[in-house]
Design goal:
This protein is of the alpha/beta class. The chain has 13 helices and twelve strands. The strands form three sheets. It has a six-stranded parallel β-sheet with strand order 2-1-3-4-5-11, sandwiched between helices. Strands 7-6-8-9 form a four-stranded parallel β-sheet, with helices on both faces. β1, α5 and β2 form a beta-alpha-beta unit. α1 crosses α3 and α5 runs parallel beside α13.
Length: 336
């Protein structure tokens, strides 16, 4: 015999409150005290009551779901950002759905459609390859956006940017002070704004010190692309004494290519990353890298979406994430 499901009325009766108060407790809305909310949630847990979020969304035309779109879910940078996003979302009683684009146009479009189908309350676009027309489609439906390095203009959009100029300046000057003058760069797919920004700021930082910004090799943002870029740099003449990778995954691939072919890092060649993922801390040698604070990115995006979805008057916001040099053991004095 099937057990009767506990209803919102059962919870309200057991807690001694109205059904509206139960709803406010689960949705973190309304003017109820923290004590009342905790009491209601405690009673609901005891009665094993689980609200039907989908039915509530259909009835109110508003969900308690936030969406996140990222480029590469295997990249530790995005994993940290998603975890931080979820922590803030759960604190405000939101569910979270995640879509990955894998840097592919078809998947970017599908990710957008999925968010609209799920009637999310807000979307964090933590990738810079999103088509502006798709952003406009989300915005047209009144859904708040938190955009990473996209500079999308709307009263419902929060733009989160990284200070790449400062970050690249710090890492190039670090290598310069170690005596390096031939400093190469491994970038990624140039169709993507934040990847191109790193390369442009590498060039500007090199020229500011009177250095020739080359060689530049294009990878694919992943270790295998870094490895292939490393093989290309081994054939360069003259070979650079240091290489700046556009992210930590690329740096890991570079170092493997160099060590596989008999070079010591940093004795023969220095390598830097750009992200400060957990890979940087546990890789040997410990990567010198730029800390882009993915945890701050995730929490800022979730907070912005919560605020935008609960405010009566939406307002555009902008946040700039300052990045910091983390000196590890993958950089050292230029070889003589």
């Amino acid at each position: 015999m099937l057990q009767k499901h506990t209803t919102i009325h059962d919870v309200a009766r057991a807690a001694g409150v109205s059904t509206a108060t139960v709803s406010h407790a689960f949705n973190a809305t309304g003017r109820i005290t923290s004590k009342t909310r905790q009491h209601v949630l405690s009673v609901a847990r005891r009665l094993q009551y689980y609200p039907n979020r989908h039915a509530s969304a259909l009835a109110s035309h508003r969900s308690r779901t936030l969406g996140v779109i990222v480029s590469d879910i295997q990249n530790p940078f995005f994993a940290v950002a998603i975890r931080s996003f979820e922590a803030v979302a759960q604190r405000h009683r939101y569910e979270v759905i995640v879509s990955e684009t894998n840097y592919e146009v078809a998947l970017m479009r599908r990710a957008t459609e999925r968010m609209l189908e799920q009637k999310v309350r807000g979307v964090a676009i933590l990738t810079s390859e999103m088509n502006p027309a798709w952003l406009a489609e989300i915005d047209r439906r009144g859904i708040p956006l938190a955009c990473f390095d996209l500079d999308f203009q709307s009263e419902r959009a929060t733009n989160i940017k990284v200070d790449y100029a400062s970050g690249m300046k710090q890492v190039i000057e670090h290598l310069y002070h170690l005596g390096h003058r031939r400093i190469g760069f491994v970038g990624g797919r140039q169709a993507f704004k934040n990847i191109l920004l790193r390369q442009e700021n590498y060039i500007a930082s090199m020229k500011a010190l009177g250095l020739d910004p080359q060689p530049i090799v294009i990878g694919n943002q992943r270790p295998d692309g870094g490895y292939q870029a490393g093989l290309a740099l081994l054939r360069a003449s003259p070979r650079p004494t240091a290489v700046v990778a556009m992210n930590d995954l690329t740096a890991v691939g570079l170092i493997k290519a160099f060590t596989d072919h008999g070079l010591r890092v940093p004795g023969d060649i220095s390598v830097t990353g750009f992200d400060n993922t957990y890979l940087a801390a546990y890789f040997i040698p410990r990567l010198t890298t730029m800390d882009m604070h993915p945890d701050v990115l995730g929490s800022t995006a979730a907070t912005a979406l919560h605020e935008a979805s609960t405010e009566t008057e939406p307002r555009a916001q902008e946040h700039v994430i300052k990045i910091d040099l983390v000196v590890g053991q993958s950089t050292g004095p230029a070889p003589r």
